[in-house]
């Protein structure tokens, strides 16, 4: 099964897409209802071996022959994710007043030169107001908006992308601060060299240039090494990322990434290389000569190194809090009851070609027969079909209706709409709250019925019993759904159809036998691993129609998982960045304490010689490390409180000031600081007093 789109003749010209082979669609193809198709480049390469002579050949789509007239170039990204494009032809049924308000067509436009987005938005608002005035039932409270295509493409993940960009920046800062600290230590070891260079006439500017040149070389080497790692890790990133992230497959290391990396490496090397460069060249020659022999450092430089470590810890805390909040949020949303039982459920979609199943009766008969056969197979507890699977972002349908006693009104309520077969509620374990669900008697010969969910009952019949009430569907209908009176026969529990983080909307269920639409998803509840029943489902399908494919074969657990996959992906990335930041900060603490131990060897020897116990020395340096951690933790928590506001849109069930998260971060960072401080502290305790006292 392939994903295609029906488009108008100017679709490609508006987008600026050119043909790789043949030609693209034009207005004449639409006006003449031509049976032609344009292939996407990926489909052309995958299915047709990238053969240029494919143009002019025939392929069958939905049981009908279509002539391939061209292959669209992949130089321009075409929205929608389609693999092929056919002419969009409106049938009389599509254009009837009964379909007014269905609004299943989207539009793409290119602004004229000199026209702003705001002007286009104002013009569309005028059109929307006129439609609402002329057709209030179908268009009241319906707006028309103009959005940049790029913004629309990344709209759903923009907050996450901004958060991840901020996280990457923080990790880069932590790494740069760490390197600056190491360069400070290295510069201090070169005090004698700097003093000699200064003594023979090297100016401070020349010395700074040397330090910066060394820093840039290190930065470029690190940047290039990072590019190599990025080249290989990007593949894993793309493989782990959810398919819902737009253009994720196009992510890779190219010349733009190379240029950006080199620029960042040079800039950060210069900026953070200035700290050790200025600190190492800021004293007089006499000061250098007086200190070079002892190999000691001034208190000022020690304070700089400690301040850098505090900055590292603070940045790591901000990242840890962000990761902790997302982890807590993901745990909360994973525990949400979707309103049905997803375990042991197999799902897949069917598309019945119009050329073969020309009538709704044929569609209804096929679905009824296929579902009955599946339900009768050993190991299958129940089977059903649904138009609008829960948490499937490929579906969106709603209907407005009139309640008993209401006349045409612009204020008529609207609800989500699902077309299901009788076994649907049993298969998904959706609880019945009142009345009954659908059965075999709810067919085209019986009275038309409907089942609503608890939210619809609460919202539209507050304090009343909806059972036996009538609703009249008439506008904003999905194609193929019959309008008219429906008797409410049952109330079922709420289901999270749109998202686990959203309040369940009002829903109206209609029996498929009375509304035999196409585009169904089959659901099978099994007694064992659902995927083990795929051959069973495929065999039964082939016994009815060998040409029908099964598409989007998934377990319901996968469907639920994919609905929060973007959250999981963002959480994992931010947690990874936070882990790296904590590791770097711990290395920074270790480096500072290890350096202090080496510089205070004589002091340690004196302490031990006059009776200090080794444990006293351990506590002395542990106290140094913990003090740095506490100061960094305090600064980081304040920063996290400010930065946490940016995460608000990504959180569910927790606040940006969640005390459990902050307490956990404090404990984790304290443990990391203690661990990083312990090794240099133990090394200090093992110093031989006599050796230390002889050290010059």
Give an account of the 3D structure.
With 696 residues, the protein is of the alpha+beta class. It folds into three domains: 4-154, no CATH class; 158-334 and 565-694, no CATH class; 352-548, no CATH class. 50% of the residues lie in helices and 14% in strands. It has helices spanning 11-15, 27-31, 41-48, 117-134, 136-139, 149-154, 158-189, 191-199, 204-240, 255-281, 285-292, 299-334, 360-376, 424-428, 454-460, 534-544, 556-563, 565-599, 601-609, 614-643, 659-685, 689-694; strands at residues 4-7, 19-22, 36-39, 58-61, 64-72, 84-87, 345-350, 380-387, 398-403, 414-420, 432-435, 449-453, 470-475, 484-492, 507-511, 520-526, 551-555. Strands 1, 2, 3, 4, 5 and 6 form a six-stranded mixed β-sheet that branches. The protein has a six-stranded mixed barrel with strand order 9-10-15-12-14-13. The longest helix has 37 residues, at 204-240. The radius of gyration is 34 Å and the shape is elongated. Mean pLDDT is 83; it is low at 292-297.
What's the helical proportion of residues?
40-55%
Number of domains: 3
How is the main sheet built? 6 strands, mixed
How confident overall, as mean pLDDT?
Answer: 83
Report how far the terminal alpha carbons are from each other. Answer: 80 Å
